[in-house]
Amino acid sequence: MTQFKELGLKEDILKGIKDLGYEEAFPIQEAVIPVLLTGRDVVGQAHTGSGKTAAFALAMLEKIQPKNGIQGLIIAPTRELAVQITEEIKKFGKYTKIRVATIYGGQGMGIQLDALDRGVEIVVATPGRLIDHLKRGSIELRDVTHIVLDEADTMLDMGFIDDIQFILDLAPEDRVMSLYSATMPTEILRLSEEYLNNPKQFLLDADDLSGDGIDQSFLVIKDRDKFKYLIDFIKPIKRQCIVFCSTKYRTRDVAKFLHQEKFNAVAIEGDMSQHRREQSMGKFRSGKADILVATDVASRGIDVPRVELVINYDVPNQELTYFHRIGRTARAGAEGRAITFVSYSSVGDWNLIKRQIKAPLRDLNQEMGIQISIPDPLKRQMPSRRYGGQSRSNYSRGGRSGGYGGSNRGGDSRDDRGGRKRYSDKDSKNSYGGRSRW
Ligand code: AMP
Predict the structure, then answer these.
(1) How many CB atoms lie within 10 A of CB 95?
(2) Fewest CB atoms less than 10 Å from the CB: which of 79, 269, 375, 392?
(3) Is 365 in contact with 220 (CB distance < 8 Å)?
(4) CA of 20 to the centre of ligand 1 (A)
(5) 4 Cα nearest atom in ligand 1
(6) 183 with 305, same domain?
(7) Which of 353, 374, 393 marks a domain boundary?
(8) How many domains does the chain have?
(9) Are residues 196 and 261 in the same domain?
């Protein structure tokens, strides 16, 4: 167990961490913070939930001086993530004099210009608006010594790579930089080769895609029955729930239905104004709303620890999205469940995702005795075993039956790694696994 004070952090930062009740450093923090503090660049394959924000933010706070201009720059793909990072930094830095500004599109320039005028040492920004400020001269990067690219693969998906290169080309060459990405596609590796200097790499073990620590299940139903089942699953929840939909229209419809049924739900999707998105996220984060209905992009990176259930109302369009979505539950060592609704036409897509799931996966059709009658052309996509009703043990969790609504995870023994992943240090082939939580 590594204490934060062993990582070489100052007293005023340790005090902020103590206020948050963090008792020990998470593996990624233990691995990354000392490296960044020595001034070496880092590439970390990390998901939200791993504690990466604290890893880069604490190292940055340690090195930055008050009143010396903008020294820290964090680039994140979405406004929501940028706001969340800022909030965390403010908490960690509560006893320092470091000031942070969030720079993102959709908010009036005036507020941001005022904050910048008052002086800040750290800027957390989305790429587009940051470029606007760079072009008008309201942000200059000449004093920047620490740069973070968070969720680099999402930025790639969102088409921000050119923007990021534009920004990095304006930053001083002598800087400490770290890049975090849940996946490492070639473009990201290329970016890191070009802009990072001999980075130390921390890669997740291959078993990361297991959704370890999350009780995962699926239910094959007709599309038109989804809403009925949604209500059944969310009625008993005691904490919060996120419902993921594949389109904005769907998101709106589901949120509308939930309102009609008197659920305390908010929605977040790309077409909503920035103000309304912030309102929704604010309500959900503060616990004023129990249910968040969302599309993928709008909610990437969102960390709300009280989420006990994620429902994939629609099958995600790719495997990684599935793991990102379910990663919204079981945060910071809490327990969580994820249920995927598979409409008949999505069985093929779901089978592709299923192959990547290494953890036990419960078949709710079998457990709940729900028959399915798939039209013939679609049947060909179905694995015969699952619908034979014979092989339940392959899909159920250790004899557990029933309990679909409650948050009880029955006989599941969340392993002793507390849901955190194992990191291997690519340089030395060491694995940071000596402790039980890995
Ligand atoms: P992140 O991966 O940065 O989104 O962090 C995931 C969650 O873990 C956040 O809610 C953090 O507040 C929480 N967290 C991060 N580090 C620690 C720690 N060392 N101890 C307890 N909670 C932590």
Answers:
(1) 16
(2) 375
(3) yes
(4) 10
(5) 19
(6) no
(7) 393
(8) 2
(9) no
Taking CA atoms only, the protein residue closest to ligand 1 atom 15 is 51
**Of 59-63, 128-132, 145-149, 191-195, which gets the smallest average pLDDT?**
191-195
190 and 230 co-located in one domain: no
Local structure of residue 178 (DSSP, 8 states) = E
Domain assignment present for 401: no
Cα(399) to ligand 1 centroid in Å equals 33
Same domain, 69 and 198: yes
Give the tokens for residue 307: 């989420």
What is the tens place of the pLDDT at every residue in 26-39?
A: 888 999 999 999 99
Residue type, 266: V
In a domain, 420, yes or no: no
- Only one residue has tokens 């620890």, namely 305
Classify residue 55: in a domain, yes or no.
Answer: yes
Q: Tell me, yes or no, whether 436 lies in a domain.
A: no
Q: Is 160 helix (H, G, I), strand (E, B) or coil?
A: coil
Tokens linked to 418: 């507390």
Q: Are residues 83 and 222 in the same domain?
A: no
Burial class (CB in 10 A: 0-12, 13-18, 19+), 116: middle
Measured N-to-C along each axis, helices 79-92 and 11-20 cross at an angle, to the nearest 10 degrees, of 120
Extract the tokens encoding 434: 């000596």
In angstroms, what is the span from residue 106 Cα to ligand 1's centroid? 27
C-alpha of residue 298 to centroid of ligand 1, in Å: 21
Q: Would you state the pLDDT for residue 398? A: 31
What mean pLDDT do residues 58-69 have?
96
Mean pLDDT across the stretch 374-394? 46
Specify the CATH number for the domain of residue 218: 3.40.50.300
Structural domain including 23 reads 4-202
Question: Tokens standing for 145?
Answer: 């010594």
Note the pLDDT of residue 324: 77
Ligand 1 shell residues, CB under 6 Å: 22, 25-26, 29, 48-54, 303, 305, 331-332
pLDDT digit string, tens, across residues 258-296? 999 999 999 998 788 878 888 888 899 889 999 999 987
Which residues are 363's β-sheet partners? 218
181 and 118 in one domain? yes
Q: Are residues 194 and 221 in the same domain?
A: no
Position 57 scores a pLDDT of 98
A 10 A CB-CB count for 301 gives 24
